[in-house]
Amino acid sequence: MKNFIFLFSFTLSILMSFTLIAEKAHAEQVPLQENQQFSEAELAQMLAPIALYPDSLLTHILIASTYPIEIIEAHRWLKKNDGLSPEKLSQSVEDFNWDASVKALIPFERILTRLSDDLTWTQQLGDAFLQSEEKLLESIQTLRKQADLAGNLNKMDNMEVSYEDNNIIIVPVEKEIVYVPYYDTRMVYGAWYWAAYPPIYWTPHHSVYISPYSPFYWHSGIHISFNYFFSAFHWHNRHVVVVNSYRSHKYRGRHQISRGGYAQRWSHKPAHRKGVAYRNKHTSQKYRSNSVRVNKANKKSHSVQRSNTQRRFKQGLAIKNYPSSKRQSHKVQVNNRVISRAKSKELQSKKVYQHKIKSKKVTAKNHSKSASKRTSVPSRKKQNNFNKKPNHQHKSMKGQRLSAVNTKYK
User: Fold this and answer.
1) How far apart are CA 256 and CA 150, in angstroms?
2) Pairing verdict, β 177-178 and 222-223
3) How many domains does the chain have?
4) 33 in a domain, yes or no?
5) Count of helices and strands (H, E) across the chain
6) H-state helical runs in 248-376
7) Which of 48, 130, 229, 376 could form a disulfide with 185 if both were Cys (CB 3.0 to 4.6 A apart)?
8) CB distance 250 to 267 below 8 Å
9) Helix (H, G, I), strand (E, B) or coil at 84
10) pLDDT tens digits, residue range 13-33?
11) For the segment 53-79, what is each residue's pLDDT rounded down to a tens digit?
């Protein structure tokens, strides 16, 4: 029996020690997962297919990747309405409650298809952009410099490549037309620095001819509107700046957006994410608190907008002075006056009726009080007066007879 108890206690102690070790290991791993960020190799791997895109298009892709549900909605809607012209597509999209970056990608069907089909890559790109915007932009510049060292940036025919403060900037040659390049990521960057993380390679939709002498294939140019240019890279500070897409009616360049006084740093809008989980707890707590503030601000703004619209509608009716509106308003005023008069008459009649009832009640009470206070004395007086009336008449008759006798003798 003693041996059995000893073995049982020994096994229990071993199990307890294993559980403590496992809990410690789990506690050490949890903070690593919470604060885990993408490495430089992982960023280069996922950014390789788009790092050489023009800056304007690349900003839209990065911002839209933080809202994967809206990308799927836009792609499905574009499939159903593929017969519409680009102008009608852009006009019909304006009424949707999507982010401006998602609306800007509607003319680029191939890119929107890539983002919708490869959702894991899209979500990782958005998470990396939300975790460290500065680190991701630094990785883009590293890949561009690597392609420049390989001697391939000089072969971009439809793009203008410039160098400012050790930064490589790629913009379209024509503002009204954007060409999307296709290139082989395994060749355009030359020697790849991260062998364990090879670059992502997108197979083309149809046969494409690419060689070391012409590493880029250009699809047909896409005509865009002036509202397309509302975001740009601020390469010096390593962040994205945005302006109001409906503020100007002209094509704006990169300098007008990034150096303009009305440009602001881009901020993530959790309402457009529509419930998609974030990669770690740090970002989820950060943007969850912001979403609560944004919802409160949106409620206040909606109430203010409703009051403003109602006020403007009333002012518009007063300024336009339509005869029909005047007649209707006059009829309403007359009806209100008639109703008010009828109500006043009813109130007055009710008051008179109540006053009469009160007066009747008061007289009845006074009568009852006077009846209770009466005694036998007034009744005797009445009897005496009644008895005295005949005597008075008798005396008057006697007087008349005496006056008649006196006249005879005279």
Assistant:
1) 32
2) antiparallel
3) 1
4) no
5) 14, 9
6) 254-258, 281-320, 323-373
7) 48
8) no
9) coil
10) 665 654 555 555 544 444 434
11) 999 999 999 999 999 999 999 999 999
